[in-house]
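#struct-help
A.M.: can someone run this one for me? Single chain, 388 residues.
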Amino acid sequence: MSKTRTTKLPKNAYIHIDKIHVKGPCRHKPIGKVYFGHDEDFGYVAAGSRLTKKQLKRGADSAFVKSKKLEDDGYAYELEIHCCPPKVLQKHNVFGHSSLVDYVYAVFDHVVKAFGLYVDAHDRELWRAGHFWLTEVHLTGNFGCLSRDVVPIINAIDENNPAGKQRSLTTCITLGFTGKRRSKFQMATLYYKPDELKTEWKRQGPFQKRLIEATKDSIRGEIKFYSMGLKALKLQYGANWIGADVATLFFDALAKYKIKYAIQPLLTAEALAVLSTAERNVYELWLHGKSVADQFRSRSSVHKYIKAVKEKTGFDMNGDRRPDPLPVINLATVFSPENVLPIPDWLFATEHYFSPKQLDLPRREFKGGISNAPLDPNAGQHGEGISA
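D.P.: on it. Structure tokens below:
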């Protein structure tokens, strides 16, 4: 993936990794219940293991782990993990980090230690080099917004997107459905994080109350990349995330949805004056309820007029919600890089902001090859492992 620009965020503010489905090399004794498949030549052979739920840290969220690529020697050669790295490492995902490769390494390291597995040094080197594959990655960030404005914003986004959405709560909406199914590429969810936290934390301690308070005046945006979306971006391979601008990925994906233009002001007389008579007529008809698509048979004409009005005035006729005379909320400002909430200073001094870089190992370029070194049955027991 070629990086065309860099998105600048406020100091200590991150668009962070929130959830991953990852599989990578790991020669290990199979985890969990092994299942078998039937081969015409060899009969029933070990095929893999069932997903096993494992808590990696006391009081933290669990990871779901599966052994794959079982061979005749009784070992599995691949490990698959489904988890939310911030939740399994620091007990919450309100804030997090943007380095996917560091997160994956930390998660693999915690999983093998939790199961007491010995891991060959070469496998660790492969993880550190980004030699793993991804089928799902979520990116998320918190945006400053008065709590009273959250529902009006979500209502406006709902009105502007008549289809391809799901809304089970007044404070949450997900975009990107195709019919009754989710997209295989990506989806976007906007929601009020404190409501989710209060549901998860029935009994809140002082630290949890401070986190809820820190997000009281905010709205959360989450982009969920799935297998086809990662493939299109050439980001299904972990090493391609090294040096990737996570914030740019997030905002480029967010721009594909009708969010920024869900709340718009009426065009002023001065703005209307720069439009041609035909463009002004299209705008007036749209304003009175007739979509641009209903005004023309040709898709090229629809695109032409929407583009012309947008380029001349900044007004988008692509959505369904009509403008407000004097809107009090500017979504272009709300969902902007400059408005991403920084991490509170007090959080840095606690165990609840775990940097995956704390597992500080040198990253070396992976040039191919799989280690055939024999396993030392006495090394790395009791979750110790070894360093690359």
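A.M.: thanks! DSSP finds 14 helices and 13 strands in the chain.
D.P.: also worth noting: The chain has two domains: 16-259+332-378, 269-326.
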